[in-house]
Structures are given as C-alpha cells and as structure tokens.
Amino acid sequence: MFDNFPLWPVRASTTAGSVDALYIFLVLLSAFMSVAIFIMITIFALRYRRRAGREAEQIDGSNVLEFTWSIVPLAIFMVIFVWGARIFFLERTPPRGAAEIYVVAKQWMWKLQHEEGQREINELHVPVGRDVRMIMTSQDVIHSFYVPAFRIKQDVIPGRYTTAWFRATRPGTYHLFCAEYCGTQHSGMIGQVVVMEPAQYQAWLTGGAASGSMAANGQSMFLQLGCNTCHRFDTQGRGPDLVGLFGNKVQLEDGRTIAADENYIRESILNPSAKLVSGFKPIMPVFQGLVSEEQLTALVAYVKSLTPQASGAAGSPSLISPGKQPQEPKE
Amino acid sequence: MATAVSIAAEREHYLNKEYGIRSWLLTTDHKRIALLYLASITFFFFIGGFFALLIRLELLTPAGDLVQADTYNKLFTMHGVIMVFFFLIPAVPAVLGNFLVPLMIGARDLAFPKINLLSWYCYIAGGILVLHAMLTGGLDTGWTFYTPFSTAFSNTAVVEAGLGVFINGFSSILTGLNFIVTIHRMRAPGLTWSRLPLFLWSHYATSVIMLLGTPVIAITLVLVVLERAFHLGIFDPTRGGDPLLFQHLFWFYSHPAVYIMILPSMGVVSEIVTCFSRKRVFGYYFVAMASIGIAVIGFFVWAHHMFVAGMSLYAALIFSILSYLVAVPSAIKVFNWTATLYKGSVSFSTPMLYAFGFIGLFTMGGLTGLFLAALGIDVHVTDTYFVVAHFHYIMVGGTVMGYLGGMHYWWPKISGRLYPESWGRLAALIVFLGFNLTFFPQFILGYLGMPRRYWQYPPEFQVLNVLSTAGSTILAVGYLLPMVYFLWSMRYGKLADDNPWNAAGLEWKTTSPPPTFNFEETPVVTWEAYNYNELPALEEVRVER
Fold first, then answer.
1. What is the pTM of this model?
2. Which residue of B has its CA nearest to A80?
C-alpha cells in the first residue's frame, strides 16, 4: 500500500510546467501568509493573555493599516490573476497545424478517432512533441476530459463541440479521467493516454486496421445523404459552396458575419436555418436526430478538408461526382 | 428539553412559561422558534454526517467494495443536499440569528413572528419531502442537479427532492425578510447603525443575499422539474435547451449561498474575539463594510465554477478578476480580528478556541480560493479533491467552527446553564485536529488529479484517502461531544448568571434565560458597540475551572 505514494503529479506536457510554477508560487505565498497569521495570533494571545491587574488597552483601529492590508493583498491578487490568465490563454489557444482527434463521450466510455481514421476506446495514442487538438462532444450528459499529467481539463457537452489541446513531452502512460459527474459508472469512465516516440507512433498508426480517414468517411456520408446535390463545387448549387468555408468569415442572411468553426458547421448540418448564409433559401432539411455523433464528426472533418489547394486530399472537388468511391487520403 | 430546564429556576422565562407540544409547535416566540430550528438542524446535521462517514469508509480502499456505485452516488448527493440546504444555510441565521437578532437590538421579537414560525414549517415541509425522496429511490444527481443528467438521465426522485429544496428555500427568504425589517425598524432608542454589533451587520448582509438570491434557485429548480416531468426544452440540448444556462442560474444563487453560510459565522467570530480579548473590535467600520462588500461582490463571481464548462475565454477573465476582488474583504476581516487581540486581555475560553479555529481554517480556505480563481490552475484542479478540500475548509472549517463557537458563547443565555468548560476545550481541540486530518490530505489528492465523486480510484491515491478517513472518525467524535454535554448541562450544568462572560451587547443585559418578551423595559443605548473599556474582565475563576 505504501509502495506507490506520489506527492506530485507527473509532468508530461508543455503547459504542465507553467501550471506547476504558479502553483508552487501560490503554495509558498499561502504558507507564508498562514504562518504569519498563525504567529501573530499566537504572539498576541500569549503576550496579552488575561492576567490579574492588567486591563486591555482600547484601540479603535488605524486607517493606515486598513488601507495597507487592503491594497497590498489586492496588488498581489492582481499579479496572480495576470499570471493565471496567461497560462489560461496558452491552454485555450491551440497552435496552428495541430493534429486533430475527435472525441465522442458517452455514459461511460470515451470514443476517440484520429484524423487518419483509427478508432480507439478509452485509450488515446499520441506521439511526443506534436500538438494535438481534441474536438469533443457528448452523446448524453456532460462529461469532462481530464489528463492530470497534462494539467488539462475540458468539459464535454452534448449538443456542441468543445476543444482542448496539448503537446506531450514525455513518453509514458497517463490517466484519462472523466471529471464531471455523469452517473453510475462515473468513476469507471477512465482510460489512458499513451504517449509514444514518433517512430513507435507511426508503427502503431499503420498497424491498426483503419477504415479510411475521417475526411474520406465523411465524404461517403456526404454522398450518401445527398448533400452534394445542392452543395456543389461551383457557384450554381442551391446551397453554398463548401470549399474554403472552414476558418473563414460567413455573411449571414440577418446581416451578421460569423466565423465558420466546427460548432458552426455542426449547427448548420443539424439545424440549417439557425444561421442561414446570405443569399440562400432555407430549403435544407434538418438532420437533428438523423446522424450519429460519429457520423457528424466525420462530416465536419470532411467539410474542414475542403480547402481550395487540397487537390489530392479526400475532399477534392474532383471526387464529388455521385457514385464515385472515396479514395484513401495521401499524407 | 422543557422538563429538564423547568427544575432550574422558579423565575418565569421563555422556557418555563408554557409547557406541552402545542406551546412549542404554535409558538411565535423567536427564541422558541430558534430552538425548534436547533433541534431540526441538529437532526439533519447528524444524518448528513452519517452519510459523510459512509463515504469516507467506502474510500478507505481503492476498489468500490463497501456499497454499490449507485448507492455511493446517492450518498454523496444526499450528504451535499442535506448539509448545504438543511444545515449550513440555516445553521447560524435560523438558530443563533433567530435567537439573538431581537435580543441584540433590544426588541421584544422579530418584526413578523408568525412569518418566523411559517419559515420553520417551510423548512420542515421541505425536509420531509427530501427525506421521503431519500427513502424512496434516493437522489443521485449530486447536490448541483446538473442538467441534462438530472432532467433526462437520472432514475431517482429528482422531482420530489427538487420540490423539497424549493419549499425549503421559502424558509430562507422569510427569515431574510424578517431580519431586514427587524433590523431596520425595531432597534432600541439610541442603537444607531454605527452602534450595531457586527453580528447584526453580517446578518443584515446575509439577509440581503437570502432575499435576492434564493428566488433564483427556486425558479431554476422549478425549471428542472418542468423539464423532467413535462419535457419542456430548457436545459436539454436534444430539445433545444442549453445545459450551461442551468449552470449559470444554479451558481448565481449557489455561489452567494456560500456567503449565506460564512457571513453569519464571521459575525459570531467578531462577537467572540472582542469579548475574550476585552476590546472594541479593530476597525469596526471596515469589518462591517466588508460584510456588505462580500454580499454585493459575491453576486458577481458565480461563473468561476464554470471555467472549464465551455464558457468564453473573456467571460472567464472577468469572473476570475471579480473573484479576486471578493477575496479582499475577507482578508480585511482576518487582519482585523488578529489586530483586535493586540494589547487585549485574551482568555482561552471554549468560544475563543473555536474562534481561533475559525480564523485558522477560514484563512486556509480563503488562500486556497486564490488557487482556484487563477484560471490556469483552476483548469487542473477544478472537479478534483482540491475543490472538495477548499470548500470544506470554508463551509465546515469556517461555518461550523463559527456555529459551534456561537453555541458555546450563547449557551448560558439560551439554556440558563453553563456547559463543562474543560470538555468544551477538549471538543474544540478534537474538532480542529480531526478536521485538518480529514481535509488537508484532500488538497494533495486534488493536485495529484483525483477527481471528486469517484466511487473507486487508482491505487496510488490510497494512502492519502486512508488519512482522510481516519481524520473523519476523529472529527465525528469532536462533533458528538458538544451535543452530549449540552444535553447533560441542561439538567446538571451550573446555573448561569445573566452575563457570565461580562460581555457587551444588549442580549447580556436581560436575564438568562430571557423572559418571553426579552426585556422588562425597553433599553436605551448610549454606548458604542463593544464598550469593553466600561466592562472589567472577570477574574479567571470560572473559566479556569
């Protein structure tokens, strides 16, 4: 029972160090403040303990002291605030070009899929030194993706995507916890993140039997659902051209301009008239309840792959003619 | 209870004026209602505490072996619901506040005595519903009722428990309303706002939160019930609702509710520290205004419970900085209590030991709050045992220490009897040590990454969990002791003087126990609060025994 008794969590991501640094600062600050107050109370209580013949001296207070012990803590608090906020910015800003993992949580299981198509359950394999961004949603209740060794946590919410990112720095196997209470087997909704050397990771990636990349799967969904009848890759379609959509601004019918991110694509598939693109009619059917979360992530991955220069990628406009089989992606 | 005291004295007072069950259940005397609350919150405290012990026993080993997973989930849910809504929120205001607010301002009763009794019946009705829900299916949503789990997935008695908490909320609203009107309208001649004891300032601030905050949780729970029972789409995304909306509404009340729990105990500590150092409080206006500041700023920090919930980056920044602002008035109070000891005449009586315990544990709880308000750290430690430890330091280390300190301080006034001083000190020490052993290891567990609400856990967390469980058994002894010797003292305790501590404050200027209408004649106040320069310290005779 005592052979395995850590007092500090493993540090295995690029952000873990900065979180620990602030934590250590706060531990020292708190220790200093607690000890200081403890000593003051002890000294006062003993030095001025009740004795016969000695009366308390009445002191009303001191404005100088009051302002000092209001402003000095406030100044320290502001330092902590800025420090904490900087780390948070880092944690919330995924670097460009990160590998993407799509995560679907359900009671009580993590389903993860790599861009390349590999599916995993309660296990995530990632290489050392590569930025990894997770695009996560839940099929049922709220869960929370938590890897203590990476110091990251993000609630996973039904009905929308939330994201988190990390860059692993140290090969090993680390806990993956669900941190938001989700019912009976909440504490069983655990898994592991396996961080591998890049070469090993490549071997692992090619070893599994992937059923085509996510974008390719998405493309077959796209054809199967007949999306291509309206979303054509020219300006003649009854729906907007999707090439180059992701990451760009969209002018809406109601005059607003919004950024087309994963949540926008998701919403526009499930409930198309919610944010109608300027110049188009609300004729697209509602897909809410007709596609599973996995199918939806594949569709999103496909739409994201449709970039103007991605001639060889799965989303190449040349592949769009109905009935044609989707191709394997080239790296 | 009434029979035990009746032998004590022939003089007529609120306890021996009438006998019989009707004289208690239909009373409008604020002091008797306070005792009704005392009996009922004690009952709920020990039920909630029993659940806590079962939770700790389950966590003694990494495997889920003592109870089933579903049972465990119900245990921590019911522990939370009962402790938060049926003990911590009413503890100090409904017992000590009810008893003392009229006495401290020289009034005959609260402004609305019948509404005061109604508030207790709301509490009891809500309590019965929740107990019934607990016995018939239980509740497994966590005390936070998070949607869509609570509205669409849980198979337990969410509707009934939700309605129980809803009805109980009216008890809080009515008490807050009563205190506000009473403090505004019924102060004795000469008792200006600047002469109010700090206990009253903190109860005033608390009452404002009760009155403005509680309706929001009431509405939210009604929406949960509507969504669950009638499938309205409010929080459930599959019906077009928004689960984060629930969290915003829930925490809009439930964060200020933390201040409902802690502010009254802060008031108790101000009374005790001044009395047992024989001094006017250091910086009276700053301590009083800190209570108001906490109540006001406390309404604008709720979303710091949601930093990883999917809120926008900029919203998180605003709630982080506001959370730091609300920490300043708390720091001011701690510094002022410490400075009050300076050049005082300090005695180590039982209430003072609890006050010291409060300051120590509240300081630790407050400092760890700084960790959680720091966005980058909150991401790692939120929803782990770090948070569990933090809020127990505030709500148990703070609120319960203040409550027990107050119970000891005013027990002679309430019962007319003295409790055994050495047992009192021993219990205070046991509570303090047991508390720290229970909850300090949980800070480390949290930073190591152990999530809260886990029925089973990886084996490397076991050592710290064993320490915590060991502490909880010590803590349980510490909590049982006062109940035993308080009950004992009602029959066997020494008779108390009207003012056994020689304390300032109007409540000590009437007899112990007070007559039904509190004062023979309405007092006229010509002195500032805590005029200990006019009240010599008693010799240590009684205290040292």
1. 0.91
2. B374
